[in-house]
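Thread: quick sanity check before group meeting

JM: Hey all, I'm pulling together slides for Thursday and realized we never actually wrote out the predicted structure for the chain we discussed last week. Dropping the sequence here so it's in one place. If anyone has concerns about the input, flag it before I start.
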Amino acid sequence: MKKLEKTALVLATLLVASASLHAEAKITAPVTGKGTPKYMFVFVGDGMSYPQIQSAAYYAGKDAAGIVDVVKKSENPSDSPEMKALSFYQFPVAGSASTYDATSFAPDSASTATSIFTGYKTHSSSINVDITKKIKYRTIAEQLRDQKKYKIGVISTVNLNHATPAATYAHQASRKSNYPIGLELVESNFDYFAGGALMEPQDKNKDKTSIYELAKQAGYKVCFDQKSADALKNGDKALVVAETLADSDSMSYDNDRKDGEWSLRDYVRKGIEVLDNKTGFFMMVEGGKVDWACHANDARSSIADTLALSEAVEEAISFYNKHPKETLILVTADHETGGLTIGYAGTDYNLFLRTLDGQKISYAKFDSDYVSSYKKNGTSFDDVMKDVEALFGLKMPGSNGSDTNGGLVLTDYELGRIKTAYEKTIRGDKSRNQQEYDLYGTYEPLTITITHVLNAKSGLGWTSNSHTGLPVPVFALGAGQEEFKGFYDNTEIYKKVAKLTKVVKD
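JM (edit): ok, ran it. Output follows.
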């Protein structure tokens, strides 16, 4: 274990110390770590490990002189690559946590969130129950509510009864028990929920009382638009559903978000306003669509939502600056998704992250707004490629520009891959042999091939459409921050928080 601890400390030190701090929200209060946490923020980047964080930091910075189509080796220091530190790179403590569960070294969100919020391992797909499915585990949020009278907030960019947010309040053998999880949401009596819409709010047969109606009966202000959400005031009990909903009734990917549409940061800001009180509060904030983007191997969307999570953390930093001895902020993840790698064989040692600027929308929006129409109308390959150039920047072979060194012109091989995938998509062929499953997973062949080609040109690669066993970072700022340094299991996060808040297991 000493060797693992040393490795973790090296990783954390490199990640924190190597960055020049460019974050927008600066820590201005003392960072002694003294005091007892009364206000707690736990930010969970679903699917977000070191590669997701670093690719976002590199993208937000600049590559070699910020140029595309040219590999430039310059003696001018201003031409060197430079990353932009994310908000939590300022935190004085960074550790790492293992993520395996009682099923696998490559776990799911239900079991890993259970570990974080209860300190127990369980099977993949189970939420806050033991491996026999008979014993229910109490969560840190429930314990802080009951033992310390804290107000509780739960925010997520995905559905509010999805696995990670559910792990703060629900106890189910299966994460797919959407309606029972919704019932537990109401029964939790937590103070502030905000994010994507509930899955199956009236159960599968739509024959039960809506969870939204039950929430109203329980005293929640249920808001479906930003105007009513904005009108919420301190002390309100609220269930807020994003006004604009995207794939699977989640919040929009940040690179799809329209002007004026609330970001994750806006919901955190409103949550602080609603929850702030003298007794204390606990807020869990999930960037859930980092995971969804990584499942689809959409690097640009993963980066956008990782940056959105970083911006949301800035709201907590601002709060910390006012209450440094009473606030603890943690930024972590449940697991890594996609096996993202920074470095690709085809680009040697070079990254060309500016190629990702060519992508204007997420894979999901491309599927819903374009691919569905292609399949319905039998759109020609030539016409599809016009959209591909407009929306992803990829140009037909022979176009102006380069097909190497970060150029966006397709090679004949890359064009052939896209055409093969196009033909399978247009046919509506959902069958997959082993080779096709390796290439496409369960995603639209056309869409995921486009992102794969773009990712490869940028110097990023993927190994999976599923979760992996990578450790995840744990960044800490505030009262008790020193507890979170080193390498430890994700169950220790609960134990450390319980120790600091003097919560008793029940």
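AS: nice. The two ends are 30 Å apart (CA to CA). Residues 327 and 388 are 47 Å apart (CA to CA).
JM: adding both to the slides.
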